[in-house]
Structures are given as C-alpha cells and as structure tokens.
Predict the structure.
Amino acid sequence: VENNEKEIELLDTIKIIIADDNRCICDLYTKSLEKHKDVEILGIAHNDEDEINMIENLKPDIVISDLMRNRRWTGLDIIKDYFKSNKGPKFLVISADKKSDVITDGLEVAGYIKKPFEDYEQIYTELRRIKKSIEN
C-alpha cells in the first residue's frame, strides 16, 4: 500500500517554473507555494533565456510567467511560441494587464491572474485546477 501512496503523490505533484524578472515577486510566489507539499518548484527564471532553457531541460507541467520583461513583451512571445508548437508546458500568467488586452488572436493560456492581488493562495488554487485539466 505504501508504494501506491507514493506513486499517487508523485503523479499528483505539480512541477513548476517561476519566470519573472522581478526577484521580489519570485520570492513572494516561492514562499507562498513552498507551503504546499504537492508543488515542486523546479527553477526560477529571471530572463527569457533561462526560462526557455528550464522549460526544455526541466520539463515543468506549468510555468508561472509574467508577460513583460524589461518593458518588452518577451514573456508573451515565449508563450506564443510554445502555444504554436503545441508542445511544452501550460502557462499561468500573472500580469498587471487585462487579459483581453494581451491574450488575442486565438492564443490560450491555462490561467490568468491580474496584478495586484492580495491572496497568494489564489496561485496555488489555479495550479491545482490547471494540473487537473492536464490529467483529464
């Protein structure tokens, strides 16, 4: 029975990467998510190159990403590339922009949280929902 429980736990673990050029925000997300035993933070990317390398090498289920880095929409470009290729992780976007202003032309993201927000548990709730949709 013990082995089965371990297998279920492993299947249920949400493997994520946090991608944001703001280190303070990354720390806040990390502190909030570390409380949950079923979330495994594979890495934290502060730039586009690191994000792409981590996605390719670490194979996360979900990437928590902002859209704009250094006042350019490079986070959004990465999401578009993976969406077009139809392979890779799901994206949970956390952005100060309204979703409808940014996510256009048939582009879909798995989740979207608008900044600012107070309740960091919202991130975990979205990760669980997205993970469930991946499994179904």
Observations:
- The longest helix spans residues 121-135.
- The chain has six helices and five strands.
- Residues 5 and 11 are 10 Å apart (CA to CA).
- The helical segments are 2-12, 23-34, 48-58, 74-85, 99-102, 121-135.
